[in-house]
């Protein structure tokens, strides 16, 4: 049961990495410092105050950069592989010692990196639709929603990890359907013009 709980925490945190790379890592670091979370062996560095400060600075810089027009779209190019790496790390750090190193890393790469990548690609699609339909005017609203989602999902991953995974799957389905609908509407409008 502890292994499943650890994976659920990792999946929730990796989903949050898809919204913002540094927010879940900062939440993990703060949770480690206050005793809510004990990272897996080898990830004790998350509980260092200097790492927490560094992650806080990186988080503020990342959130701020997404409010700069056109930089937000350029950041998505870098953020996609970074989110997958961060998702892998958060899942690995949340895994318990009950699994072998190989199984832990395999789960972290496949589940954590895959989840972060899927969420990140969804946010890229939403930002693309926002840019195409509003000329980028709505992108700050999208950015605000993304970093708030990253924070909420990160916090809830520690409080109700199984629920976060279930809700995350449901929301992914909704977002994918919404993006497909918007693309179809745009292609219909383009073909009529």
From TrEMBL:
Residues 7-181 form the DUF4126 domain. The chain crosses the membrane at residues 12-34, 46-68, 105-127, 147-176. Keywords: Membrane, Transmembrane, Transmembrane helix. It comes from the Bacteria. This is DUF4126 domain-containing protein. It comes from Acinetobacter chinensis. The lineage of its organism: Bacteria, Pseudomonadati, Pseudomonadota, Gammaproteobacteria, Moraxellales.
């Amino acid at each position: 049961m502890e292994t499943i709980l650890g994976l659920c925490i990792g999946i929730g945190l990796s989903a949050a990495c898809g919204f913002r790379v540094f927010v879940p890592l900062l939440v993990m670091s703060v949770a480690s410092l206050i005793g809510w979370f004990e990272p897996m062996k080898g990830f004790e560095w998350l509980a260092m105050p200097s790492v927490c400060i560094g992650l806080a600075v990186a988080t503020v810089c990342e959130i701020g950069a997404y409010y700069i027009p056109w930089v937000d779209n350029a950041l998505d190019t870098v953020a996609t592989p970074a989110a997958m790496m961060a998702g892998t790390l958060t899942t690995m750090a949340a895994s318990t010692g009950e699994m072998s190193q190989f199984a832990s890393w395999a789960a972290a790469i496949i589940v954590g990196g895959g989840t972060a990548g899927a969420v990140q690609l969804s946010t890229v699609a939403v930002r693309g639709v926002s840019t195409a339909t509003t000329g980028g005017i709505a992108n700050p609203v999208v950015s605000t929603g993304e970093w708030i989602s990253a924070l909420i999902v990160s916090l809830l991953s520690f409080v109700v990890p199984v629920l976060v995974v279930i809700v995350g799957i449901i929301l992914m389905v909704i977002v994918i359907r919404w993006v497909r609908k918007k693309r179809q509407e745009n292609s219909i409008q383009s073909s009529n013009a």
